[in-house]
Amino acid sequence: GGTYTDAQNVTITCETPSTEIRYTLDGSEPSKSSTLYNGTINITSSATLTAKAFKTGWTDSDAVSHIYDITGKVKTPVVNPVGGTYTDAQNVTITCETPDAQIRYTLDETEPSTSSALYTGVINISFSATLTAKAFKTGWTDSNAVSNVYNITKVQSPVVTPVGGTYIQAQNITITCATPDAQIRYTLDGSEPSEASTLYTGAINITSSATLKAKAFKAGLTGSDTVTHEYNLLY
User: Fold this and answer.
1) pLDDT tens readout for residues 159-168
2) C-alpha 154: how far from chain center
3) Strand order in the sheet with 129-136
């Protein structure tokens, strides 16, 4: 036992052959129903390990206790997938080996703090960005920061609302694109949009049946995939 800055891999041995070693991590006295020791115990947070050995027909061993004070540094977060050049948006996950650590992150190259965005699940990176992550835990030294640069080379596909279908009245169509500063171009005759097609600047009022195709463009990036929606108006 002692004070450590990192998790500890603890082994337990007994000189008496064929004994069963049982242990607890909450300071309580081990019994024959306590956890059976069968290999290295990884202690990642402060705990009191108490161990005792048993053998049929023999008097149980004395119990031995060790207090492990893990007050060290939070483990560096692990980011997956790592940074790189990608054609499409990436769903990024972040994990930390230190139990109960909070992971905070930024997407603007700044160092994360305890007030930065809290990681709660998959981060969808749809445009080029530098993700920096850092983990925090009360009473512990903050983790090292880890940075990954994602270079997204293709504009993300536009999202059209409402989707195509059969309607009994005119529809106001909105189009968005997750890639910042992308220009959305569209057609209503089923032809493939180009950078010379009509620029989307606001809601499109569709008053008769039409096939809307939309595509997004941004200088230096590959144009998005084309999305198609057919509107059948029955009125």
Assistant:
1) 999 999 999 9
2) 22
3) 84-86, 146-152, 129-136, 102-106, 117-118
Model confidence pTM above 0.70: no
End-to-end CA distance of the chain: 80
Burial of 40 (0-12, 13-18, 19+ CB in 10 A): exposed
Confidence of residue 61 (pLDDT cuts 50, 70, 90): very high
Q: How far is the C-alpha of 128 from the C-alpha of 92, rounded, in Å? A: 13
CB contact at 8 A, 127 and 178 = yes
Q: Which tokens hold the place of 221?
A: 């990036």
Specify whether the CB–CB gap between 131 and 92 falls below 8 A: yes
Burial class (CB in 10 A: 0-12, 13-18, 19+), 3: exposed
| Residues constituting the chain | 235
Q: Is 60 exposed, middle or buried (0-12, 13-18, 19+ CB in 10 A)?
A: middle
73 pLDDT exceeds 90?
Answer: no
- Contacts of residue 54, defined as CB under 8 A and 6 or more positions apart, other chains included, come to 19, 20, 21, 22, 32, 60, 61
Nearby residues of 105 by Cβ (< 8 Å), 6 or more positions away: 94, 112, 116, 117, 119, 123, 131, 132, 133, 134
